[in-house]
């Protein structure tokens, strides 16, 4: 085993280390009986070992006997056609039939006929054709279209994972446990959806219940696996929090936390002497009072701050106030205590002004840069901004007097250090002179321009430049904010489900943007039209006719964003205009394992074929394998798959 970790590039971007964890796998979104797996600390990504071993590129699956299924990355939004669950990261897919199965169903294909007498007294048969049905298991998921198990005698149907649990016989968990927080009755191990009468959450920590959990049906008491094996302490005595000892109350009870002022609904730590109550995850410094601060809302969660309870405010910015619970979240606070520590002033200015039109930028100290005012027409494909890698010319930019170095004016103004909503430490602007490619944490796109970096966290300058409140032309009346959530949300720009999004916090406004759409260029140039193309934010009303993309010659969805020309007669997919490699610098070299690929402009009159997927390379930037001129790839994924599996 190499010290730098295990490399599984088809599954995850970064090397991962061997890890033992009973948490739900990010690979298949399920718990398994064995804790062995791999973990990426950078992304908090946990992979089951058995899922990591399931990486055959092409498989046969009994649920789809007509065609083979190919391994594919999934950005979110697709549903497994076998079990009906959301697909995350990887799946096996038939493009011809739009059929997907997640990794779990690929490893455990459901049998044609099963007996599950606990759920239903008769044999159940798996339907091989997509059918509209209502699940009879009272699982809260309702029905829909899918491939259910059906009883021919009773004419009832069930979701696959409501009646089929392939790992149940392999579980090492005890079928029954005595828990310290529920001494009245033993808790029984259950699998599948939680009972319909429960709230579907762990009584102790409030986390949504996974596929395996312990439950008492007499008391409606449910505990997830982590709280069974590592329950919270029964009492806490810390003078920083409270003068008296606090005791955990394992019950459903609405309360207001005396530390942060936010509502809670279960299992607080309470003082029986004075009625003091706090959340379990309250931090010792929560007791800090916000003297004289009234009428503010928290700048993290945008809810009202109770000035009589704990919280934090900024000394420099008196209007910046946050709940103590929000301030000490893992995604906000870096864990460093700064009481009594003097905050040093940092130099964030990226350049020195020489005269009204000339600067000396820290990334190019050897020469001066002269400002050139854009007119919205001038455009040179070969001249690229070294920071964001996009073409220059439509807008004002700085150009080196002595060499081919360019920066958009906005990119030149990016500060050398800054705080960002996606990370709880200060980020530093790195020039990336080697043009090494990396995966941006904001938009999940590969990139090789300037980056904002701290440790293993890397953001391209486009995502790194986003700050709150963020105002986008597609939603000009309300600002957008980043509010972390465990659920993926549908982006208004691309209709894809994404985890990291910017959302409007106004009541009754459900506008959401992912970082990829939030950083799309508003105006671009493409050889399909002589004039610049403008980003159109979709049509609010149903279109009278079909929209077609002139690049790929396929239909476009008018509800999704697209680029249009001056006379608005074209509706071009954003991906067709920009491609998968829009954030790579042309003529740079991308290395993968022991192969090197050159980033080249796709300017040939006849479009080459991708050596992996065999489709025409329609995107403006493609990859070529160095040393073999005949090989072309339309995307980085195709290049990686070609390396691992060849042309098959």
TrEMBL record:
Keyword Cell inner membrane attached: no
Domain DC1-like C-terminal: 597-639
InterPro entries according to UniProt: C1-like_sf (IPR046349), DC1 (IPR004146), DC1-like_CT (IPR054483), Vacuole_Formation_Reg (IPR053192)
KW Repeat (keyword) present: yes
Keywords attached to this entry: Repeat
Domain DC1: residue ranges: 63-106, 119-163, 181-228, 241-280, 282-327, 362-412, 528-577
Domain of life of the source: Eukaryota
One Pfam family of this chain: C1_2
Name of the protein in its database record: Phorbol-ester/DAG-type domain-containing protein
Annotated source species: Brassica campestris
Lineage of the species this protein comes from: Eukaryota, Viridiplantae, Streptophyta, Embryophyta, Tracheophyta
């Amino acid at each position: 085993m190499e010290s730098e970790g295990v490399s599984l590039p088809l599954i995850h971007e970064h090397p991962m280390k061997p890890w033992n964890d009973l948490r739900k796998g990010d690979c298949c979104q399920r718990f398994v009986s064995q804790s062995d797996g791999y973990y990426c600390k950078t992304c908090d990504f946990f992979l089951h070992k058995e899922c990591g071993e399931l990486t055959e590129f092409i498989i046969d699956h009994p649920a789809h006997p007509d065609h083979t299924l190919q391994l594919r990355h999934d950005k979110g939004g697709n549903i497994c056609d076998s079990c009906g669950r959301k697909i995350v990261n990887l799946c096996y897919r038939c493009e011809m039939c739009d059929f997907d199965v997640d990794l779990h169903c690929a490893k455990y294909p459901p049998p044609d006929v099963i007996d599950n007498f606990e759920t239903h007294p008769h044999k159940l048969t798996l339907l091989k054709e997509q059918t509209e049905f209502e699940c009879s298991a009272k699982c809260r998921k309702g029905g829909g279209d899918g491939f259910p198990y059906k009883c021919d005698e009773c004419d009832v149907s069930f979701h696959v994972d409501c009646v089929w649990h392939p790992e149940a016989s392999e579980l090492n968990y005890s079928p029954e446990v005595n828990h310290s927080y529920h001494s009245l009755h033993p808790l029984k191990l259950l699998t599948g959806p939680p009972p319909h009468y429960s709230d579907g959450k762990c009584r102790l920590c409030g986390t949504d219940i996974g596929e395996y959990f312990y439950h008492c049906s007499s008391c409606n008491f449910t505990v997830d696996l982590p709280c069974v094996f590592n329950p919270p302490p029964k009492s806490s005595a810390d003078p920083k929090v409270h003068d008296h000892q606090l005791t955990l109350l394992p019950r459903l009870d609405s309360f207001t936390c005396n530390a942060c002022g936010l509502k809670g609904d279960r299992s607080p730590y309470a003082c029986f002497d004075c009625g003091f109550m706090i959340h379990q995850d309250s931090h010792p410094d929560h007791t800090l009072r916000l003297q004289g601060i009234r009428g503010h809302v928290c700048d993290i969660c945008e809810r009202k701050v109770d000035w009589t309870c704990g919280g934090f405010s900024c000394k420099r910015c008196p209007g910046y106030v946050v709940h103590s619970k929000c301030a000490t979240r893992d995604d906000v606070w870096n864990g460093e205590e700064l009481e009594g520590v003097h905050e040093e002033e940092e130099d964030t200015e990226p350049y020195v002004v020489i005269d009204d039109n000339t600067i000396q930028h820290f990334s190019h100290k050897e020469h001066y840069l002269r400002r050139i005012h854009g007119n919205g027409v001038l455009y040179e494909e070969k001249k690229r901004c070294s920071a964001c890698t996009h073409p220059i010319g439509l807008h004002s930019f700085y150009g080196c007097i002595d060499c081919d170095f360019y920066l958009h004016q906005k990119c030149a103004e990016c500060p050398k250090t800054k705080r960002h909503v996606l990370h709880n430490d200060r980020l530093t602007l790195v020039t990336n002179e080697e043009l090494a490619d990396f995966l941006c944490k904001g938009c999940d796109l590969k990139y090789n321009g300037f980056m904002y970096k701290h440790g293993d966290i890397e953001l391209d300058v486009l995502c790194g430049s986003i700050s709150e409140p963020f105002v986008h032309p597609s939603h000009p009346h309300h600002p957008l904010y980043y509010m972390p959530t465990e659920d993926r949300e549908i982006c208004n720009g691309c209709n894809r489900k994404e985890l990291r999004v910017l959302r409007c916090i106004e009541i009754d406004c459900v506008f959401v943007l992912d970082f990829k759409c939030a950083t799309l260029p508003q105006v671009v140039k493409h050889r399909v039209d002589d004039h610049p193309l403008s980003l159109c934010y979709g049509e609010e009303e149903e279109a009278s006719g079909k929209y077609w993309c002139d690049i790929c010659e396929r239909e476009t969805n008018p509800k999704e964003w697209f680029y249009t020309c001056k006379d608005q007669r074209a509706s071009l997919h954003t991906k067709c205009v920009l491609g998968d490699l829009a954030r790579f610098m042309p003529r740079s070299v991308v290395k993968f394992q022991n192969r090197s690929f050159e980033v080249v402009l796709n300017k040939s009159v006849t479009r080459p074929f991708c050596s992996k997927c065999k489709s025409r390379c329609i995107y403006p930037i493609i990859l070529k394998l160095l040393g073999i001129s005949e090989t072309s790839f339309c995307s980085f994924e195709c290049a990686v798959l070609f390396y691992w599996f060849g042309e098959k």
